[in-house]
Amino acid sequence: MATIIAIIIIIIVIVTGIVTVIVIIIVLVLLHPPPPHHPHPDPPHPPPHPPHPPHPPHPPHPLIILILLLLLLFLLLLMVVISITVKIFVILSIITIISTSTVATVIIVIIIIMIIVIIIIVIIINIIHNNIIIIIIIIIIIIIIAMSVGVLSRPVEAAIARLQHCSTVTRAALMLMACRHHTHRQSVDPEFLEELKRRRDEYKKKKAAADQSKVLSEEQIAEVFGPEGSFAVRGEPPTDGWIFSAYEDTYTERAWSFLPEDGGSLHQEGVCNESTLAKTWGIAVASCKGCKSPSDTTVGQDNFAVAQLSCGWKALCVFDGHGLNGHWPALRAAKTMPYFLQQAPCSDALKCGQVAAALTSAFRSVQEEMEAAAVLLEHDLHLCGATGTVALIAPGGKSVWVATVGDSRAMLMQGESNTVYQTSDHKVSRDDEAARIKQAGGKVVISEYADGSRDYRVAPKDLSSPQIAISRSLGDLIFKDSGVIATPEIVEWQVKKPSDAYVLVCSDGVWEFLNAMDLRGLTLEALRSEGASATEVVRGLMQRAKQTWNDMEALELKQQLEMARQQGWPALKAAWIRCMQTAPQSRRFGHRAVSFKEGFCPIGLPGGLSSFIWLSRLVTGVDK
């Protein structure tokens, strides 16, 4: 399909050039006919007469008017064809048949064509008036524009990528319809779009008037940090510009934002950065945007926050966004979770030792504020959300409390013991979570595959789609009355020797490829044998997870090629094409990757190795 449309674009360019050149030649011939041929010398001219008054200008030749009208009609048809072409490319990009970079390239070419067409019209008009200077200026302008348009390719690509997240209903429907022939995928529910629209309308009516006072401003969040050595750090994703939407390259490390802005107690020798956080507070972080495809420029969906609270507790937070606009709920939670933990009633509960009550209250407040902010800031929170993991380290490091919703895990490892503590994912493969979902009216959908594996998902009441892989989350409003709650599961871990204990918090981009014992061994070995800093350790864990993903994906592709070889040459050729078009770490593997237009198209699954890792010693001032 992409090749056919590319050929159409080339034909449009060629036809446009030929037609415009022919029109210009005809107009020039009509305006400047060749002088008549005189075989004999002209007779002598009579004496000059007094000059006659100037004659009024002759009206344009009817043939010239007809040609210009035909040219305008042709340009109008060209505009229609280009408009349809752009829409086709955008739709193909939305359902991931072609990449956003291809769409951006096509739009850049179309912009150049439109500019050339407009300039040609102006040139024709100026030729009629014999204004050569204006023609030269216009030619210079078109050269400058053609050279500068190339600079806009990345922002245009980002704008197209952003478009993939703008129309939730449209994209969801297109993605589901694109996979309607894959029986192991979610099928289109005829009532889904209508039900989703009805729920959105009811939600907006209910929230618009009552909950706007719950929305926190940047100033409100910033002003609570600073007193008594408190501070907060979070990931700061790219923001939309004045013209173009935000974009983020694959494997980009996320910038940090500090509250208060001067760093507060983080400020050391005029520097406030990750090195200060590691050396002074014993906390290190590694962040990396994933790779859904080599040309993916959408904003990474994970975020993090760390806070030193006025009451002496440290908070380590990881939020893994998902859905069509998943980076927004993750960012919103990273902004507001430290705020609510710092403020009453959570701060009062922490001072009184009621840690579970403080964490429950904080998660409830984050969810309520997120819902209100989504209405005020016009973000659709029905089909997007975020996991949330918050680890609270007590003053002195004698205990760690962890609250989780979703599948981002926390782990406690102690050097003297081989025992590790870790949280459990919230999925309906757990009997207790499945029972809770069913009791709330939600549906548990189980898909079985030829290799014996199973995929467990939650579907809303009275609907077969959409489906979600986790049973607790922030956001995801369409699932809230089906048991997908934002109430965290809370555990407490006692620490024997805080000076030799570490807390590790990661999103599922790490946990899917490295188990707890692997992480423990890699971490302690690097810290003790190699003498690495905490920052170097977490970056090493990130690289190991990426490499493991790459190896597993390569093995899966190898298995697919072997199966295709047994089916004959056509299947082997098709599988090899898919293999060549699939970049490392660009797609999910196993039964979750399906053949789709000679590529891999994951739908309804988290994409890319987009992970945030917190590694924190329970006592401070110990990092290298």
TrEMBL record:
Residues 303-541 form the PPM-type phosphatase domain. GO terms for molecular function: protein serine/threonine phosphatase activity. SMART domains: PP2Cc (SM00332). It holds the Pfam family PP2C. The keyword Chloroplast does not apply. InterPro entries: PP2C, PPM-type-like_dom_sf, PPM-type_phosphatase-like_dom. Keywords: Membrane, Transmembrane, Transmembrane helix. The chain crosses the membrane at residues 7-31, 63-90, 102-125, 131-152. The keyword Amino-acid biosynthesis does not apply. This is PPM-type phosphatase domain-containing protein.
